[in-house]
Amino acid sequence: MHWNIDPYLSRRLIIIWVLVMYIGQVAKDILKWPRPFSPPVVKLEKRVITEHGMPSTHAMAATAISFTLLMSTVDKYQYPFVLGLTMAVVFSTLVCLSRLYTGMHTVLDVLGGVLLTAVLIVLTHPAWTLIDRLDSASPLFPVCAIVVPFFLCYNYPVSDYYTPTRADTTTIVAAGAGVTIGFWLNHFFQLVSEPTDSAPGVPGLPPLSADLVLLGVTKFTVGIVLILLVRQLVQNLSLQVLYSWFKVVTRNQEARRRLEIEVPYKFVTYTSVGICATTVVPMLHRVLGLL
């Protein structure tokens, strides 16, 4: 969406997603409600089996993304509102049902996630326009965009035992911070042109054609390859620096889970990914003549 449709819409979706996911993840480790007991439930996912259950962050993310997308595009692009609403409901419902099918959540977990997301959307909706103007903030804005998210990740609620929740939360928050900083860089250094607002009811998308699809696939491929390269490079470099700083054995899995290593390396890696996706990739697209 960012490279092929509407980068400013994608930024709004990412920021709302980050907010919802952080609150949901923190709520999990504060409430500490267990996942469904097995047996009788058969759990089909193993990686997150140690996480707590309430609320379902998959349900929260699906609801937040689908309904934020609907509310943000209904007056910008021309399509039947009923169709958009139906797709949002169907997508959210399918994700919620999948969490029950895989045995990872109870009905209460899923309903709690949906209701919490609905409350967050209602409360944050008046500030969505402010979110769209973050890239015109002061030169000190990037400092806040790094310090505040890092502080939230580093002071994540302590669990009784290790779960991937803190690492996943840091990944999400760092990516959001990187995207926000990337848009600020684009605006401050005028690296990209300003968006043009579409009039209500006027479609903002060009007609679909084979050439357009090929261009979209090419831009997506170039972007993903560059992001993967940046992710691997920054992750390896940050881990090496942290291992050396704290004098731990390289590739020690237990050491990677330590707070002072896990949070910084995840944060640096995915902040870099966010900046790359929003600033470096579009510049590369321009150099390659893909814009």
Written description of the protein model:
This protein is mostly helical and 291 residues long. It contains ten helices and no strands. Helix 7 (165-188) packs parallel to helix 10.
Please summarize what this structure is:
By secondary structure, the chain is mainly α. It has helices at residues 7-31, 57-73, 81-101, 107-124, 128-132, 141-154, 165-188, 210-246, 253-256, 259-287. The chain is built from ten helices and no strands.
Layout of secondary structure:
Blueprint: H1 7-31, H2 57-73, H3 81-101, H4 107-124, H5 128-132, H6 141-154, H7 165-188, H8 210-246, H9 253-256, H10 259-287
Helix pairs in contact: 1-2, 1-7, 2-3, 2-4, 6-7, 7-10, 8-10
pLDDT averaged residue by residue = 84
Sheet having the most strands: none
| Fraction of residues in β-strands | under 5%
Shape, please?
globular
Tell me the span between the first and last alpha carbons. 14 Å
Low-confidence stretches: 196-202
Order of helices and strands: HHHHHHHHHH
Q: What's the helix count?
A: 10
Could you tell me the radius of gyration in angstroms?
A: 20 Å
What is the structural class?
mainly alpha
In percent, how helical is the residue content? 55-70%
Number of strands: 0
Characteristics of this structure?
single chain, 291 residues, mainly alpha, 10 helices
